[in-house]
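To: structure subgroup
Subject: Chain for Friday's discussion

All,

I'm putting the inputs and outputs inline so they're searchable in the archive.
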Amino acid sequence: MYSMTGFGKGDFREGGLEIGVELRSVNNRFLDIAVKCPHILNPYEETIRTLIRESLSRGHIDVFVSVLDKRERERKIYVDLATARAYAEAARSLKAALPGITDDCSVTFLLKSPDVVRTEEAAEADDALVQGLKQALSSALSALKAMRQKEGERLKTDLLARMDTISVLRDRISERAPLVAEEYRRKLTERVTEFLGGTVDENRILTEAAVFADKCNIDEELTRLASHIVEFRKICAEPIVGRKLDFLVQEFNRECNTVCSKSNDGRITALALDMKNEIEKVREQIQNLE
C-alpha cells in the first residue's frame, strides 16, 4: 500500500557532470506531473514524464532538475551586431552633443557592452547528459516510492484498526436487532392492555409486531456490511488500493445510512452513527492512498 505523499532525491556525478533530481508528491485524483528543468533538457520532458508514469499511478508530482556541467565542451560566441551598432550610434550622438568629451568608443568597448556578446555551450544535450538524467531520476523515484510505501503502511495500520472498530459496531447492532421487534410487541401489548382494560387481541398484536419487524429488518444491510469488511481487508493487502477502497467506502456509507433510517431503535441508531463517524475517518484517510 502506498501513500501519495512523499519526497525523493537522486543525484548523478561523473566526469564533471552533476545532475540532481528532486520529486515531491501530494494527493491528486489522477497522475499530474509538473516538470521544471534547465532549457537544455526541455526536449526530454516527455522522457521524464514517461519514466514517472511507469512507476506511479496517482498524485501530483513536482519534478525539479538541476544540471552543473564542468566538462570541456565546445563553446560558441555570438555577437549581436544590431546591439553593437546601437551602442556605436549612441556614442556618436553623444559625441556630437558634447564635442568636448573624449571619444573612446572602440571595438573593445563594444565587446564589453551589455548584451553584445553571448557565450553558449552546445545547444543540445548529449548522450552522457541524458543517461545521467535517467539515472538521477531513477534514484529519486526509488527514494520517493520508499517514502510513499512507508507512509502507506502507517495508513494501512490505521485503516485496519478502524475497520476492526466498524466490525465491532456491526456485531453489536446485529446482537441488538432481533430484540427490537420483541420490545415493540411487549410495549404495544402493554399500551393496548392499559387502554382496553385487559382485553387484548393477541393475533392483532402479533400482526402489528410482524409488520413492524419487517419494516425495520436490517439483516440484509448487516450481511452486506460484513461482506464489505472482509473485502476491505482483502484489498488492503494489494499495492495500489486508493480507487477500490474509495468505491467500497461509498458502499459502507450506503448500508450504514439504511440502517439508521430503518432501525426505529435508539441504541441501534447510536451505534450506526458511531459507525458512520468511523467510516468518514476511513474515507478521509483513503484520499491519501495511491
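Points worth raising on Friday:
The radius of gyration is 36 Å.
The helical segments are 45-53, 81-97, 107-112, 127-196, 202-215, 219-235, 242-262, 266-286.

D.
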